[in-house]
User: Fold this.
Amino acid sequence: MQAATVDPSWYRAALYAGDTCSRLNDVQNAGAWFAKAIAIDPDRETAYRYWGDALFHAGDVNGAREKFVQAVVAEPYGPNPPGFELEQWAQRSGHQLVKRAITRPDFITPNGVLQVDPALAASTKDGRSSWIVYQQYRVAHGARTLNQPVVAGGWSANAVLSPSGYRHTIAEEHAALRAMLADIDAKIKDGSLNEADLDASIRNIRSLDQANVLGAWIALNAADMGIRTDYADYRAIHRAHLAEYVNAYLIR
Assistant:
């Protein structure tokens, strides 16, 4: 507490002051300190998670849920994924975490050109052939595989990556998926495809798009290294939307 007074911008001092209060069962003061830590850096998950633990042990199940959701939104890809705490909360409170069954077919690009999978092209009855539209969109924007394993660029002294060259972004992925869905809709409209026969993954993507949460699904459930690098910019604009997605679509 003295350290936090001397340096009000020191995240760990506020965090550990809150943790100490929590261990002394002083939940009110713990929350005040955790709130200070979050104000210092709202994009670190630790204070949300510690606060959620304190609230849960004090019997505030709904308050704990809110903090664990905020932890997921703050840092979904950390070395200790905050989703683990949310999963524990779900188990203890009679809920469950649900991930929609969505599989996007991989692709390869010999010499920078999409190699169309003949089996995929032949899958016209369930709509899977429309994934080729998705793949073509991605390749036209620089993708060479489904997932981007490494983002080229340089690291600053503060470990901030500045990407160079192609980077898979949430906006690109969203646009590519919507191009695929537009192709699906056109085929349903002209009668060449029956909506009832749609592949399960495509049905799930359509439902997410119709609910306006497809971008959040991409950010949290379909992230590669490119999207992870893009996440901070997306979170800055869509923090509340991401929390709504976790609450409405990942928790049951």
